[in-house]
Write a structure and sequence with these properties.
Layout: H1 13-32, H2 35-50, E1 55-59, H3 61-78, E2 83-87, H4 92-95, H5 105-114, E3 122-126, H6 133-144, E4 148-152, E5 166-168, H7 184-206, H8 220-234, H9 238-247, H10 252-261, H11 265-274, H12 279-283
Parallel strand pairs: 1-2, 1-3, 3-4, 4-5
Helix pairs in contact: 1-7, 2-7, 3-7, 5-6, 8-9, 8-10, 9-10, 10-11
């Protein structure tokens, strides 16, 4: 064990904060070393998305929960069901640890079959150790059926780094609290999932400039954000943007097209369909 984390329980709060920050900085460095692998994996995943496929995160414990977190946030952020997540032990394992479920290799196959996995999809296995039986079973099953597979693990020499089509292996090494993979390894996985979903959605027309133009405005905060986006892109005052927003029945993209093309909602919707809902193609 590293010298600086010996006798952790005897350290004061300031020293612990400094230690945790230092270790997380090392996590970022380990991710940077995987840049080429990240680019390769995202490029292949994007191809699947562009051909109507889904991205399936699968893992156990912390890894499974991180997959669920990212997938669940893609719906309100990008108005998409493309990203889905499976956790060993099912829904009950989201809030309560079910450690024994990670050894069930048959359930991994059953869980993938339940969602009718096909070779249009991409399956991303998540495991800090790279040796989780449930996750490895899922990747092996998917690969045998010609489905794109990606492994994300903190252990470059693990099985999960060897069997998928593409691997991303930021080596986070020993955790501050020995064996607690929700720490540095969890950070690495969260950052990588952020990148995978955000980059693919940006390149799929779900972002204009740096704005979330497909955000689902289902509360006051998000309605305000959507109106602000319309105001910014259309270069009109907020009150005009608000009128456009409600004329477009709360469809942010359609409101923008209505303004730029001087058309009604029906015409704007048709224009968006013809442009594959890519705003850049319509207004530059």
């Amino acid at each position: 064990m590293k010298k600086q984390i010996k006798n952790l329980d005897l350290m004061n709060t300031k020293s612990l904060v400094e230690l945790f920050l230092k270790e997380e900085q090392n996590t970022i460095s380990s991710i940077k070393k995987e840049k080429l692998n990240i680019v390769k994996a995202i490029s292949k995943i994007l191809q699947k998305i562009n051909n109507g496929g889904r991205v399936i995160y699968i893992g156990a414990g912390t890894s499974g929960r991180l997959g669920i977190l990212d997938a669940s946030e893609c719906k309100p952020t990008f108005s998409t069901d493309i990203f889905q997540a499976i956790i060993a032990g099912g829904k009950d394992a989201i809030l309560q640890a079910k450690e024994d479920s990670e050894d069930n290799i048959k359930n991994a196959i059953k869980d993938l079959k339940k969602i009718n996995i096909s070779n249009k999809d991409a399956v991303i296995g998540l495991s800090a150790s790279g040796e989780t039986p449930y996750t490895l079973s899922a990747i092996r099953f998917a690969k045998k059926r010609g489905i794109l597979t990606v492994g994300i693990t903190s252990s470059p020499n693990s099985t999960l780094a060897k069997i998928p089509d593409y691997k991303i292996t930021p080596e986070t090494k020993s955790e501050i609290i020995a064996g607690s993979s929700r720490l540095k390894s969890g950070t690495a996985q969260k950052i990588l999932l952020n990148m995978i979903s955000s980059i693919t959605m940006t390149q799929s027309g779900k972002v204009y400039g740096n704005l979330m133009i497909d955000v689902q405005p289902k509360n006051k905060k998000l309605i305000k954000r959507a109106i602000g986006i319309i105001s910014h892109i259309c270069k009109v005052p907020l009150n005009i943007a608000e009128i456009l927003f409600f004329k477009a029945r709360k469809n942010t993209k359609a409101a923008i097209v209505m303004h730029y093309k001087k058309c009604d909602l029906s015409k704007a919707t048709n224009l968006l369909k013809k442009a594959d809902f890519n705003l850049r193609k319509l207004i530059g």
